[in-house]
Every structure is written in C-alpha cells, then in structure tokens.
Amino acid sequence: MGKNSRYGVILDAGSSGTRLHIYKWKDPAKERHEADADELKSLPEIKTRKEWTKKIRPGVSTFGQKPSEVGPEHLNGLVEHALKNIPKDKVKDTPVFLMATAGMRLLPTDQQEALRSEICSYFQENTDFSLPDCDLHVQVIPGETEGLYGWLASNYLLGGFDHPEKHKHGKGHHTYGFLDMGGASAQIAFAPNSTEAEKHANDLKLVRLRTLDGEPQEHKVFTATWLGFGVNQARESYVKQLVDAHDADAKEIPDACMPKGLRTDLKGQPVKQKDSKDLVLVGTGQFDECLLNTYPLLGKDVPCEDEPCLLNGQHVPAIDFDVNHFIGVSEYWHTTHGVFGTKDDKAYDFATYQKKVKDFCSQDWSSIASQFSSRSKKKDAKFAEEACFKASWLINVLHDGIGIPRIGLEHTSNPVHNSTKSALESAKDKGYLDPFKPVDTIDGIEVSWTLGKMLLYAAGQVPPKHSAEEALPVGFGSNEPGVPADFQYAGSTWRPLGNSSHDDDWGDKAEDLIDKAKSKSGSGLLFFVLVLLAAFYFFRRKDRRHRLYSFLRRSRRSASPRKANHRGLSTITHKLFGGGSRPASYERVMEEGEADQFELGDVDSSDDTDESESAGSSSSRHGRRSGLTTPKLNVERFADAMIPSGSSAAALDRSGLVVRTESRERLVPPNLQMLNAGRRSRAGSPTRMKSPLMSPLPED
Predict the structure, then answer these.
(1) CATH 3.30.420.150 in the chain, residues?
(2) According to the UniProt record, where is the region Disordered (predicted)?
(3) Which of 53, 70, 131, 367 is the most buried (most CB within 10 A)?
(4) Coil, strand, or helix at residue 209?
(5) 690: pLDDT strictly greater than 80
(6) Tens digit of each residue's pLDDT (9 = 90 or more) over 380-397
(7) Residue 183 marked as a ligand binder
(8) What whole-number percentage of the chain has pLDDT above 70?
(9) Position 598 confidence tier, pLDDT thresholds 50, 70, 90
(10) Per-residue pLDDT tens for 154-178?
C-alpha cells in the first residue's frame, strides 16, 4: 500500500528523553500532477499518526560518558518501532534524522562529538535508512533552529502558508508566532511587522520553501533561545537561590512554590520522614510569594547591549501584539492544562488561570495527594508536585518576560482584520486571534518542531519550476538575497520513485480512508469505510475489474434494448475499470486517416499468459497498466482482417471484445468484408501492440 508515498523518520533527542516521529507525504511529482490550481500553490501535504510516535527515557545526553551504549541500549527500540510502521520497500528511500536539543547542548564538546559518531555508525550499520551525510542527519541543533522548525510546523498546520488570505491579522501580516519551553531551554520565533522587519533586517532568518508548482516561497523570521530557561533548569536555579538565602545550619527551608505541607529533597523527590538528615524543602503554598521569588530568574536586570531586549539581555525586535498572535507548545500546554485546565479550554485567560493556580496551591498536600493515590495516577501526582512552580515560571516568562498582555486584566487595541467573516469567527473560536494560546495538537496533529524539519525536507523534493541551475534551494540562512554562506539546505532533492501506475493509487486511497475514519466518530461511518476498503482491496487487481466489467456488459446486452442513459453508464464503468474500448476512440482515428490503412492494435485482457507478459516490450506493459489500446498502421493484411459472421457470441467470452469487434468491422471496407465472407483468420484475434508509430498514453 502507499506505493506513491514517501516517508521520513526523525528523532527528537531532548533533555528528558528521545521521541521518534514518522511522517508520510505523497511523492511531490505525483501530487503535482493531480493537484488543482489552488493546491498547486500549497506545500506538500504531510501526514502522521499517533501510533507512529514513541518516546523512551532518559535522554541521549545521559550516555555522554558511555557513548558505545547509546545504540543498543537507547536507539534500538525506536528503530524497531519505525521498521514496524514503514513498508519494507520504502526503507532505503526513507531518510532518518536525529536532532539533539538542550540536553546535548549542555554536554562538553568532546562528548557531543563521540555521541554523534556512535549514533551515525549505529544507523548505518544496523539499518537501511537513507543517511548519506552524518553531519546533516545527526546534529546537535541550536535553540534558534529548534524555534525556527517549530514556527514552520505551527504555521503549516494553521494554514498560514497555504492560505494567507484567510489569516490576515492586519498590516499585511498572516503568520503566527511560536513559543516553546522544554526542560532545559525556551524558544521564541515570529515574523515581525513590516516596520520592525526593516529596522532589524540583519537579525532575521530567510526561510525558503517550495510549493507544488515549483515556485519558491520565502519568509523572514526572528528566532531566539534562552538556554537554562526551561522548567527543569529554572527549578534548579530557584532551589539554589533558596539554599543560598537561608542559614547553612537549617534542616528545613520553606518553599512558597510547593503546595502546603509537601516535603521534598533538593531534587524534588518526596520525603516522608520529618527527621530526615538531608536538607528538606517544605511547601507553604503562598503563590503570590512564589511569583515574587521566581521573578529575578528572568534576568531582567542583565544589561541590554542591543535594544530592545526581553529575557536575560537577549535582543528581540519589538513585538506588535495586534498582529503577532502566539501559540505555545510543550510546557506552555502541559502547565496550563495538566492540573489547571482541560483540553476543551479554547483560549488562555490570565485572570482565570491565576485564580485556578492560587486555589490549587493553597490546598493542603494531603488532600491533593489523595486524588492521585492509585497506581495509575502516580504520574499525575508528580505533575501536581511541580505544578505550582511551573505555573509561576510560565506566568513570569509570558507576561513579565515576553510581554504577552494579561487577557482578562489588560486590553490591547482592536486591529482591523482584513479577512472573511467566517474565517475570522473560526479563528476567534479557536483562540488563534488572542495574543497567546497554548496548544497540543492542531486538527489532530501534534505540534512538534520535528514536523517543521520534515516540511523543509518534503518541500525540497518538489521539482523546481525552473532549471536546477537557476532554482533557489530550499532551506534557511541569513537574510540575504540568493544563497548566503551559512545557508542550511533541506537535505533533499527530487528524484523519481521508479515505475508507478494508476493502480498504485489504490493503496494510497485506502490509507486516506483509514485516516479519515479515525478522525470521525460513529459506527455507521466506520462500517461504510470498511466496506469501501474491502471493495478497494478486492478490485485492486485489474483482472477482477475486467471480469466485473464484462459481466455488466453481458447482463446489459441480454436485457432490454439500451436506454438513453447508456452513454453515461458506459463512461462511468470505463473510468472505473479502465479496460473497455470505446467506439469513439476509433471514430476519431478514422477522421485522421483512411480506414483501409489501419488494423486494430492489441487489446488488454485478463486472459494474458505469463509467456505473453514476458515477451511484451516495456511499452506494452505500460499499455496494460493503463488499460488503453491504440490502433496500429498495417496496409498489407486486410485480406485476412475480416470478422467471421456469427463470431459475436464467442466474443462475449472475452471481456470487452464485443465493442472492439464492432469497431473493427466499421474500419474494414464493405468490399473486403464481402470478399472474405466466411473465412476465419488468426488476424482477427487481438494482437500485442508493437507499432512504432503510435505509443501508449504516458503514465501520470
């Protein structure tokens, strides 16, 4: 199934674990052939499934001092999962990438290089995945690159690239900002308004994609990262700050960022004994105090060398929140929806959220813990232990760090949105016109920066409209015309998948139906889809379609005379089964040449033998796949070319032959029919098409 599909594998090697992602997209050349005018202006359609992801812990960075173990102890299970979900005949054409983020960035350079070398060798020696360049496929990517990939993924899923006219936020702006926070770092990426983009042109990245029509699509994006500003690293900094501020002889330190009564060690592990010999943190549940204590971690007092700045003295162009609407992923989603909200919450409201956090953190820990007493909710209990600090950190980063307006308390001006009313109402309903919205999925697909990387790769496979020498490459780099020196290529070029045919689409269409069925609910729809899949599976072979087509024709001829709607039914069955000849085809040939110059070419039949298939040329095989036949020129064999009378009954034994026989009779002049009346000739049987003057129609 899916013979016209391409696959890609990417491993997100984060600080807490490694997550495998598998993506699939239709071969760009095939998709371009079938696309309409609107779709030609779009990027390749990338698909994934929930079962195509798998995460294991701990992270790759934990193998820094034992790199030889990273393959068999860490990557092996992920590779096996990928091979279970990718067709065997697609593996060699499937690229594999491992992109390490903040966890690996914290390792010494020599450990990073040792791990990268071991990872690349493991893939090359133990898999058949495509990995032509280790430096390109196994990387420790900068935070700015991670943010850029996330920006690409978000805008791709939201439709800001393919349908900019439906996402106009005012001032000619149609893309969304991206915020990401993990365990060790945080990222921001957005396209500044035109004024700021011109003012800070040297700070922007030029991102180049390619739509299905082969045209380049360019965007100018600012991206920045803050290493150490992820929730886990921020918590470590916060605890160190508490310890440094208290007496060295103290055995217990009050912690306003934990629920009242919760006791943990400095690493966050619960401590039950009150007489513990180690230093213990004791929660007080004072959330307002927690906000004050975490604020200094933003580094707002760090000198700003290039105005304006946000966190830790980092330069960021001014953000126009009238047109820059941000979505937040990872911890922005988990911290707002883990214990304080539900997936049904459409937008982030600061006043509502802060009240929920205060109410939760002021509870006694014993009452909170009772809600997670069962073994199945042990993971939720861990989230509850950390929730108050994470919520405090998120609020500070969002509002005092980045400057997101406090919806519910602060008001922004109302921009004039140049958009259709329906699109605007839909965006408002989803919260995408608010200054900030935390998300986990968009239209059922997880928002992950890995999708952005794979989008670049798939776009790089689209054949350019112009020659390869003139076409600009897909990728990103400094905001300069052409191809800057630091340009990072997508890592892909277009090449054909090999021989393919219309029949290859049956598998792709069946998979598309499965995907649609999974996105809908209702047993009736599911049953209908299963019936369609069964029909697709049974009739995927052309001989079965021919037999059904022949049966329908015999039934129609043995019934009442043809009705007026016969032509419409014939057209439908021809398009469905592909093997029947149409008289109109031969009538067109008669208009182009004399009837006595032509003899029928070969006819596609379900009775083909293995011998005839092996003897046929490549062009004849091509004709069998497409189900089309063409006449061939022959001036000398009309003496043997007549049709014996009474042969129509026998012709019914072969699919579609009645139509072909009638057409043949019209091509033979009447005088030749009379001269050869009663004779039988083998020339009357269909022959394999070998005409050098007429070639089959090209495949899609």
Answers:
(1) 231-303+330-402
(2) 560-585, 598-633, 663-700
(3) 70
(4) strand
(5) no
(6) 888 899 999 999 999 999
(7) yes
(8) 65
(9) very low
(10) 999 998 898 887 777 777 788 999 9
Concatenate the DSSP letters of all residues of 401-454 into one string.
Answer: II----BTTB--------S-HHHHHHHHHHTTTSSEEE-SEETTEE--HHHHHH
The pLDDT value given to residue 230:
95
Residue 270, φ and ψ in degrees, nearest 5:
-60, 140
72-81 burial: b if 16+ Cβ within 10 Å, else e: eebbeebbeb
Is 153 assigned to a binding site? Answer: no
At residue 649, the pLDDT reads 42
Tell the burial category of 40 from Cβ atoms under 10 Å away from its Cβ (0-12, 13-18, 19+).
middle
CB atoms within 10 A of CB 124: 15
* 230 annotated among ligand-binding-site residues: no
Q: What is the DSSP letter of 305?
A: S
What is the amino acid identity at position 357? V
Q: What is the CATH number of domain 231-303+330-402?
A: 3.30.420.150
Could you identify the residue written with the tokens 């992109």? 99
Higher pLDDT: 647 or 71? It is: 71
Catalytic residue, candidates 31, 118, 146, 386: 146
pLDDT single digits (tens) 556-571:
555 544 444 444 445 5
Which residues make beta-bridge pairs with 36?
none
**Cα dihedral sign for 154, 158, 159, 160?**
negative
pLDDT grade for 536, boundaries at 50, 70 and 90: low
**241 in a labelled binding site:** no
Helices (H), 21-139: 28-34, 37-40, 70, 76-85, 102-105, 109-126, 134-137
* Element containing residue 375 per DSSP (H, E): none
3 state SS for 455-492 = HHHHHHCCCCCCCCCCCCCCEEEECCCCCCCCCEECCC
Token readout for 469 is 């020498």
Asked if residue 187 belongs to a known ligand binding site, the reply is yes
Q: What distance in Å separates the CA atoms of residue 27 and residue 508, rounded to the nearest whole number?
A: 11
Q: Any idea which residue has 């400057």 for tokens?
A: 403
Within 8 A by CB and 6+ apart from 369, the residues are 381, 384
Local confidence band at 511 (pLDDT 50, 70, 90 cut-offs): low
- Residue 587 annotated to the active site: no
- Alpha-carbon distance of 401 to 391, in angstroms, equals 14
What superfamily would CATH give domain 1-141? Answer: ATPase, nucleotide binding domain (3.30.420.40)
Q: Where in the chain is the domain with CATH 3.30.420.40?
A: 1-141
What number of CA atoms fall less than 13 Å from residue 139's CA on the CB side?
Answer: 18
